[in-house]
Structure formats: structure tokens, C-alpha cells
Amino acid sequence: HSGIDLTRFATVDARRPAARRALNLKEESFVVTMVCRLHRPRDFGTLLAAFQRLHEAVPHSRLLIVGDGPLRGQVEESVSSFALQHDVRLLGLRRDVPDILAATDVFVLASQGWEGLPLAVLEAMASALPVVASDLGGTGEAIMDDQTGYLFAPGDVAALAGHLIALAGDIDLAQQMGQHGLQRVRESFTVERMTRQTAQLYEQLAKT
User: For residue 193, what are the contacts with CB-CB under 8 A and spacing of at least 6?
Assistant: First the structure.
């Protein structure tokens, strides 16, 4: 894995108002974002069912889905069936992901089946966002449960909704988790750090 270039991501709130205006989001909105390919192993059923519960509890919440893929039509149909067309936006493929993350309150990654270490999770942590994700594969290694965000069992709508509602109700906690996530990326997942670790590994191998 190549690691994260921290210079691309906003770790301060300075860019937030402009980023929100560009996306036509109100300042008071509670913004949940998922950046991914619209394809398996992503679990949009669980995401949308949980978001519907969040929206009932927190009417000013909004969901941004960034990316494209073969499941797009299916996701659009699900959004309609939940009657969330005004509150969920499918933004398609975007080149301004750091700006979208700057406008976000909480990053989500809902998956089923398998998972590597998704770059999107590290990018969200580099943007000082709390991450709520399915407890699968490398995701569970990157996120420290209850510290940099929350892990939930794949397919557990109630758990995902509960975590989102908790973060919407405690912005200080959300920001604290985001800062812990940023610290974790700096300590373990930057390009420099991973390059150094790879070099050390090669040195050890050369000695054996």
C-alpha cells in the first residue's frame, strides 16, 4: 500500500464554508459521505436503511455518495424507494474529493463480504473526519473503534444508524475522533512512513 499524501487534505475547518457552498449544502446540515466504486463489496442497502433512520432523528442530515459503477441504477432506485431523493446525492466520479471531505461531518464505508485497506478510509482520516465502517479486513486495522470512529458488523443497520445519530448529537466527540484519526494516519499511514518501513524491510531481507 502506497500511503497517504497529507498535503492534499484539509485538516482545518477553514475550507469548510466554501466547500459547502460549492456543493450547495447549508452550513447547519449534518453531512455524511461515502466515497467508493458503486460495486460489490459496497453495501448500499445497509447504508440507505441506516441513513433513513438518521434522517428521521436528524432531519437536516444529508448523504453524499461519490463514485460510479455498475450498481448506480440500483442505488438510485433504492434512494427513491426510501423517498430520500432530496436528502441523498449521487455525485458520480469527482476529482475534488478533498473538497467534498472538507464539507463532510462523518465518513462512512458500508461493505459486505471482503475488504482490503480502502484508500478512501485513510483519506477521510487525513481530513480529520470520524469514520464509521463495516468491520472487515484492513478497515478494522485502520480504524480504532471508539477512538477514531466506529466499527460495526456488516449489514447491521441499527448499529450504523446508532453511531451516526450519536455523532450528529455530539459534534465535539466527532471532531475529537477526527483529530485522533488524523494523528493515526500521521503515525502509521503516510507515504514517508510507509516508504521508510518498506526500506527497512528490504534492509532486513538483504541481511538475511
Answer: 3, 187
